[in-house]
């Protein structure tokens, strides 16, 4: 039996005598009191269930964020692995080209060595020719010496011939000295070129390779090791790519499962909230009833203030319903200004601050427009932002902000007499506070403006 049934029964019953009527009322009261107590007990249980559902929803939300981040990371990893695979292929191609280039250079050097060997042979021919010239010069000097002797014996008649003989002897000496110098220079050049030729030639019969060919061999060995490493790395990358693709599929499947669980938790939470609303709406004095009445009263006060501001010309309709939110540069979390912030700063605190003293459980009381924008928060949450301290700002600078999450938007756009919700309030730095919130619509001259949000602890 419901409380409304008892009420209808008491209204329609026609007592035969006053004594019977009093007895019936007493009986109804006796039976109604346990029923009311039972309903209140059920309401508390449903409220507790709603709290647990909100906690589960919050955990799922946190997990969902992690999984989304993991999915994004896996996608980025797959892209990075593809880039690495492309780089490995480029390395393999480059090492193959380097190996071919080294081989060509080695063959080219060997050809140069053969050419240098030909130069050595030519120099030796030059040396042989210089040797022959030396011999001829010696013979010429001997002939010139003999001619000089004979000219001396001839006396005055051989005097002119003697001058020629001396000149020939001197010239032969010069030729001999020049040829000997040529032979010495050629001998030194021959030794150096022979050494250079041996360095350039790659003689398989040599027990030890020349330095330059050893260097080429070392380069080829290094290129070979790079090519082997690139091939091994390519195999590793292929394996990682395959595993990354599998993990990405697993993460995506986990996201689908989380979405399902998230939807279930949402339905469960909404069901518990609706049960509490129905119980509170039935007239039973549940634990949340004082907060519901307070929120409705405060919403009416804000409506009256806004209507009066329009009537007196303190604000224009376009300003009051302005949803052109202009961001404040450098704010983090983002803050905005709009056409009615000055009016809100002047008039809202008188209503909002008063409800903070309703109970020590009350956390905040704010008026928001239909998009969840908070022009003026409670004074303790209207602290100026600190540069670079987003955690502190999140907890203490909650004014001029748009709260369009599930709870915030639902409260802002609710047009029923009241809306009761359970949610986790983000305090920044990974800290959350589990709260209950009741909201009541704010109307201005029959037009929905937003809502009054009153949050309190369990």
Structural class: alpha+beta
Quaternary structure state of the chains depicted: single chain
The percent range for helix content is 55-70%
Number of strands: 8
Which value, in Å, is the CA radius of gyration?
53 Å
Largest sheet, in brief, is: 4 strands, antiparallel
Mean pLDDT score, rounded?
A: 76
What is the helix tally? 9
The parts where pLDDT drops under 50 for at least 5 residues are 1-21, 26-30
The span between the termini is: 29 Å
- Write down the overall geometry: rod-shaped
Q: Give, in order, the helices and strands.
A: HHHHHHEEHEEHEHEEE
Q: How would you write the strand order of the largest sheet?
A: 3-8-7-6
In percent terms, what proportion of residues is strand?
5-15%
Please give a structural write-up.
Helix content is 69%, strand content 11%. The strands form three sheets. It has a four-stranded antiparallel β-sheet. Strands 1-2 form a two-stranded antiparallel sheet. The radius of gyration is 53 Å and the shape is rod-shaped. The protein contains nine helices and eight strands.
Please supply descriptive tags for the structure shown above.
11% strand, alpha+beta, 4-stranded antiparallel sheet, disordered N terminus, two-stranded antiparallel ribbon, 458 residues
